[in-house]
Amino acid sequence: MSDDAATTDESVAPEESNEAVPELHGCLVGSSLGQTVVFPSREQYVDLVKALADDGYLMCVDLAGVDYLEFMDRPLPASVDAQRFEVAVNLLDTVGCRRIRLRVQVPESDAVLPSLFDLHPGTEAMEREAFDMFGIEFSDHPDLTRILMPEDWVGHPLRKDYDVGRIPVQFKEANS
Predict the structure, then answer these.
(1) What's the mean pLDDT when you consider all of the chain?
(2) 10-24, 76-90, 95-109 — which is least confidently predicted?
(3) pTM (global) more than 0.90
(4) 88-98 burial: b if 16+ Cβ within 10 Å, else e
(5) Are the C-beta atoms of 45 and 52 separated by less than 8 Å?
(6) Which of 103, 109, 112 is nearest to 141 (CA)?
(7) pLDDT at 5
(8) I need a labelling partner for 57 at 20 to 30 A (CA). Which of 6, 82, 155, 171 fits?
(9) What is the pLDDT of residues 100-128, one digit of tens each?
């Protein structure tokens, strides 16, 4: 599928349009700033990534967690149920010079998503970061432990409801 094939703006609800809702491998497709965006459910996520690999998207260039605590009314296709957390994945087809983004909604009450490690081993650290900073777990991950914060750290610092703390900076040779 070319980037031009998905022209529906993700902010437009499908019911408001006379056009058929575009899909890719059974998942809703939108567009954002000229980039194809696919909205798989958690159940479709791994199968979609496998299918996209067969389509030439062999490189995962980014995987990141997002907390939309205060932006639950963000633009999404009408049939996509907005959740507090989202995992955004950017895949690249280096031969066809194409890029595609996946946006998976992850509910706060069950913040678990399957790991992509078996398909894209390079996601190991990115999934650990999303776990460490947001508390999103990745099932079947080989080593889902903290990567940025100390192991005994309580909480997930990039959550919007995480208390802002303060660790005093100590300068070398400063007068105390």
Answers:
(1) 89
(2) 10-24
(3) no
(4) ebbbbbeeeeb
(5) no
(6) 112
(7) 42
(8) 82
(9) 999 999 999 999 999 999 999 999 999 99
Percent of the chain whose pLDDT exceeds 70: 84
State the CB neighbour count (10 A cutoff) for residue 55.
16
Among candidate residues 83, 86, 126, the one with its CA nearest the CA of residue 102: 86
* Residue that is written with structure tokens 């690249």 in the block: 92
Question: What's the number of CA atoms in the CB half-sphere (13 Å) around residue 28?
Answer: 22
> Which pair of tokens denotes residue 1?
């599928």
Backbone dihedral angles phi then psi of residue 156, each to the nearest 5 degrees: -130, 105
Helix (H, G, I), strand (E, B) or coil at 35: strand
Please identify which residue in the block is written with the tokens 């802002």: 164
Evaluate whether 57 touches 1 at the Cβ level (below 8 Å). no
